[in-house]
Task: inverse folding
């Protein structure tokens, strides 16, 4: 890794958004390509942030601060990546299920997915089954992520999966679920393709899901 | 059944002793669930005038007695008295985003704003307590929850990085507020409250929401100020906190708490809580809310009899209840099955 990419990588780890923004600008000016900066500095840095979180070294605030720093770099890179026709790792549609207004976990997953190189379409909170179906038709995502914080709202997950099946779209998209009451057993029971217990693992699961 | 409530059973639990009969405990029960069980509407009376409030608490306390509790759980949450409240639920910013917001926030008015609502409720509750019963609770919310409500969780993370001095001052100022609120509460109501508590959710499924270092630096010192006042007033104290918080449990126990409430099976089984901390403090709850929501009354009854018998055998101070609370979405029949299981255990023990 070049010194400039190392500075960006460290800036993300330390959550220093101005360091990352300046580092990306400098790297572009010294002929590093946008995809090189993304693939060799920003994505590995957020992957390391995820590992540190799973190891109990980082906590949610540290992840948020790192994600903000990563986004400072992405704000510069994104138009250049689009202009250059560089494809993102994959496309994800995400939202909390109908009746659930709790967005912190969903926002964290969004940040970690972006940090892993995904394009994320965030439908927000309290998303009705038909909105998820519509979003799959409109955006053709590789993955649909849903979360529910409460036992009661968790019951919306199979309803949404059923709506996707009814619309004939179930084979078009992988479905990953999460949230406080959700377990792997529940994911198996409702026919989801995967479950992750936190944002870091969700990003990793999304990446491995694409490979399947 | 002729049930005679006796709050001394709960006091025994707080001393980490095995009470003569298995007590029931809930952090909160939605009045809507109470209405469904009692067959009478009264929940809306909580927003009414003084006579409405008297009637509300008459029904409220009657419910606890009829369900065979020894104490009546009640708290008045602080968040509702905060101007700009709501960020704790997510989806909006709190009223304090920077130094200027912090300086101009009406901190000095908050105690009066809180007691303008709370005094009427606490007074009506105290009048309603049936013979043999005392209240269990106090000022709802804790230091961390108030910081979440005033700033918002995500913005608080950024504040921690961008303005650590403001972050530190925020927690100290919240601590000042709680100290003032609790001192007034203890002066006016401690006679009617057997046990004091506050709830402050510090964790989620896999860890604490902020690092243990941050908790030790900014939250524990404020807890110490509050808990020392409660203990000085001669009241036992239990801490309600959700999530995987094992990394800071010893720090909180060191403050002299008498008990802990809140457990979720997806994080740790309740017997793990007993194994880890049962020698030091009382543990309340044990029945995951999910169990009450997802199962038939028959299977809930059987499960609760099995689990609560096990927990009562393992722990010293133990009171049976849900691992969190009984919000309106818990089916009334599921909740009732748990209560009946507690009564069944008592009968079994009495017949031996």
Result:
């Amino acid at each position: 890794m070049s010194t400039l990419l190392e500075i960006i990588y460290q800036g993300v780890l330390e959550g220093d958004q101005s360091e990352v923004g300046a580092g990306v600008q400098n790297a572009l000016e010294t002929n590093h390509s946008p995809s090189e900066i993304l693939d060799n500095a920003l994505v590995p840095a957020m992957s390391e942030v995820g590992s540190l979180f799973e190891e109990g070294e980082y906590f949610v605030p540290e992840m948020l601060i790192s994600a903000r720093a990563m986004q400072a770099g992405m704000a510069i890179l994104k138009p250049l990546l689009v202009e250059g026709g560089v494809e993102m790792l994959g496309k994800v549609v995400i939202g909390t299920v109908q009746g659930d207004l709790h967005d912190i976990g969903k926002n964290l997953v969004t940040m970690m997915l972006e940090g892993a190189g995904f394009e994320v379409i965030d439908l927000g909170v309290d998303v009705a089954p038909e909105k998820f179906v519509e979003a799959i038709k409109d955006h053709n995502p590789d993955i649909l992520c849903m979360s529910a914080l409460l036992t009661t709202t968790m019951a919306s997950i199979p309803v949404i999966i059923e709506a996707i099946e009814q619309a004939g779209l179930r084979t078009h998209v992988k479905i990953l679920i999460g949230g406080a009451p959700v377990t792997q057993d529940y994911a198996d029971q409702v026919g989801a393709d995967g479950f992750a217990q936190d944002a870091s693992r969700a990003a990793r699961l999304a990446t491995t899901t694409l490979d399947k | 059944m002729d049930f005679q409530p006796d709050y001394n059973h709960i006091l025994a639990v707080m001393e980490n002793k095995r009470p003569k009969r298995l007590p029931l405990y809930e952090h909160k029960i939605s009045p809507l669930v109470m209405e469904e069980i009692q067959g009478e509407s009264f929940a809306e009376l909580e927003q009414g005038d003084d006579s409405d409030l008297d009637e509300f608490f008459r029904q409220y306390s009657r419910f606890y007695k009829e369900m065979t509790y020894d104490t009546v759980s009640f708290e008045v949450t602080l968040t509702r008295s905060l101007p700009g409240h709501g960020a704790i639920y997510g989806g909006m910013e709190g009223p304090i985003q920077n130094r200027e917001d912090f300086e101009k926030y009406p901190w000095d008015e908050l105690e009066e704003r809180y007691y303008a609502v709370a005094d009427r409720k606490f007074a009506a509750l105290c009048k309603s307590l049936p013979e043999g019963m005392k209240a269990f609770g106090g000022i709802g919310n804790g230091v961390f929850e108030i910081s979440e409500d005033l700033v918002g969780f995500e913005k608080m993370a950024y504040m921690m990085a961008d303005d650590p001095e403001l972050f530190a001052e925020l927690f100290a100022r919240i601590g000042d507020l709680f100290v003032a609120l609790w001192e007034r509460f203890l002066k006016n109501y401690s006679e009617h409250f057997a046990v004091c508590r506050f709830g402050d959710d510090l964790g989620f499924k896999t860890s604490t929401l902020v690092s243990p270092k941050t908790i030790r630096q900014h939250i524990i010192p404020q807890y110490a100020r509050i808990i020392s006042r409660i203990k000085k007033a001669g009241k036992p104290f239990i801490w309600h906190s959700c999530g995987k918080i094992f990394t800071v449990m010893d720090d909180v126990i060191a403050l002299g708490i008498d008990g802990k409430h809140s457990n979720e099976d997806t994080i740790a089984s309740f017997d793990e809580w007993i194994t880890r901390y049962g020698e030091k403090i009382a543990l309340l709850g044990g029945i995951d809310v999910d169990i009450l929501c997802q199962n038939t009354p028959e299977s809930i009854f059987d499960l609760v009899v099995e689990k609560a018998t096990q927990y009562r055998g393992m722990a010293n101070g133990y009171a049976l209840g849900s691992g969190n609370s009984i919000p309106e979405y818990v089916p009334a029949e599921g909740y009732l099955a748990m209560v009946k299981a507690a009564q069944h255990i008592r009968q079994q023990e009495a017949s031996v």
In short: Chain B has 14 helices and seven strands. Chain B touches chain A at residues 89-91, 153-154, 156-158, 160-161, 204-211, 214, 264, 266, 289-290, 293-294, 329 (CB under 8 Å). The domain at 8-351 of chain B is CATH 3.20.20.210 (TIM Barrel).
